[in-house]
Write a structure and sequence with these properties.
466 residues, alpha+beta, Beta-lactamase, 4-stranded antiparallel sheet, 13 helices
Length: 466
């Protein structure tokens, strides 16, 4: 048989194999595409106060998400998505909990978590922040200048909202600049203002850091202890510590890839119990030695935090004992279908509330004279993990520390090495720079490197008192 004859006879089999592989991939990918869109449409509309069309035209306009059709149903506060009518998904809004994608659970059961009083929601303090001075309230002291050229600062801020020619796009939606505890610069994009809750994406990981830190302050969790995961009790994973998880060095196998079906996307858009899904992975490395950024790791921590309290207090403690105390009254942390906060990814708050969060860390865990986090916790959170070769990661915060012995090799070379920040998908940032008494919040839907954060921060720092 000649090679040509062999190839000719093999073509039908090759095509069949390719079609099977494509079909298998589509089967895996379509529920993620429709689920991603339904969840985000639901949250942007019912938590963020956006119009459905605005979300479809922006967050859901990129390929392959744009292949799907999405809609909201105000009759039951839900959002729906499907791809060519296939793999339909639904996310529902529940007051105080935000939106949850229906995954591996019946909708009636999911809704009953609230109607049956299984979930006890936090009670917001009855205050009018518009009548209270910043930072607990929203009244600004415009008489404080610090000798800063406000016009020059506004020029820097305005530039961050300007769209470059062509792609990628900046789509900056909010910037708040806080110096020495006071807001000195603030701007919002079209459709957004100081009252607009916006998605934090992976900045939520830093909220999880704060929750853990507060529980450690109260003696309810200890970072040195082994992680109390039931499934790990009889294998080598039992040696994974809380410290390993906080430093993203658990050693668990994981694929933090969002371009298609992966550990991360399967967890976020197909799993009911996200922390359980992540904990089911096997060890790939020895715990504590290899740094690997993993949303699954954070949701294991979320699961451990939930184990501290029963449901009567779980949904209230973080708000009432921590976030409401610093004035973050718009914050909404969204749970998975199993009822555990998605500590890796799902939270909403206004830009000013994100700035308050940054101030808590700038003030080393103290707010209005009350210690909510220990100073040691803040230091711990901002000390590089052993596996981060450029000193780029601590305990659920990104760092600008630089490579040991070569500090010039750092993420933002023109910004001091004590910079650290909460970081989220598409340009969500809370930058904290203690040496300059500075907090900068930037919220956006930025693609690629449309905004040079190094230059942006450098320009702001240049205007501060030396």
């Amino acid at each position: 048989m000649t090679v040509r004859t062999f190839l000719k006879k093999s073509i039908p089999y090759i095509i069949a194999i390719v079609l099977l592989l494509v079909g298998y991939y589509i089967k895996l990918a379509l529920p993620i595409i429709s689920g991603y869109g339904a969840k985000n449409l639901c949250s942007c509309v019912y938590v963020g106060g956006r119009t459905p069309q605005s979300v479809i035209d922006n967050e859901l306009s990129g390929f392959p998400i744009s292949m799907a059709k999405f809609r909201v149903d105000n009759s039951d506060s839900s959002a729906h998505g499907s791809v060519f009518g296939l793999s339909p998904r639904k996310a529902i809004y529940r007051k105080g909990l935000g939106c949850t994608l229906i995954s591996q659970i019946d909708e009636a059961e999911l809704r009953s978590q609230v109607t049956s009083q299984k979930i006890k929601l936090a009670t917001k303090p009855e205050i009018n922040q518009d009548t209270i001075a910043w930072p607990m309230g929203n009244k600004l002291n415009d008489s404080i200048s610090f000798g800063i050229d406000r016009n020059a600062l506004n020029t820097v801020i305005n530039k961050a909202f300007e769209e470059p020619s062509g792609k990628p796009k900046r789509r900056t939606r909010a910037i708040v600049v806080v110096y020495d505890g006071q807001i000195i610069g603030e701007k919002y994009g079209d459709e957004f203002d100081m009252n607009s809750p916006q998605m934090g994406w992976s900045m939520t990981k830093s909220l999880t850091n704060a929750m853990f830190g507060h529980l450690e302050l109260e003696g309810k969790l200890k970072r040195q202890n082994n992680a109390a995961i039931w499934e790990w009790r009889q294998d080598e994973r039992k040696n994974i510590t809380m410290d390993d998880l906080l430093h993203m060095s658990s050693g668990l196998g994981w694929n933090e890839n969002y371009s298609g079906p992966s550990s991360a996307t399967n967890m976020l858009f197909k799993s009911r119990f996200m922390g359980m899904y992540a904990a089911d992975n096997k060890l790939k490395y020895k715990p504590g030695e290899v740094f690997y950024y993993s949303s699954g790791t954070t949701n294991i921590i979320s699961r451990l935090i939930r184990q501290v309290y029963n449901d009567d207090k779980y949904y209230r403690f973080a708000y009432e004992e921590l976030f409401y105390k610093i004035g973050m009254l718009t914050l909404v942390m969204e749970p998975d279908a199993g009822g555990t906060f998605v500590g890796s990814s799902y939270s909403y708050a206004t830009a000013r509330d994100w700035a308050r969060f940054g101030l808590l860390y700038l003030n080393k865990g103290v707010w209005n004279g009350e210690r909510l986090l220990t100073e040691q916790w803040v230091t711990y959170s901002t000390t590089p993990t052993i596996g981060a070769k450029r000193g780029e990661y601590g305990a659920h915060f990104w760092l600008n520390a630089g490579e040991a012995g070569n500090r010039a090799n750092r993420i933002y070379p023109d910004v001091p090495t004590d910079l650290y920040w909460a970081d989220g998908f598409e340009g969500q940032n809370v930058f904290i720079l203690p040496s300059k008494k500075l907090v900068v919040v930037k919220l956006s839907q930025t693609t690629g490197d449309a905004l040079d954060d190094n230059q942006f921060l450098k320009d702001i720092i240049a205007l501060l008192p030396q």
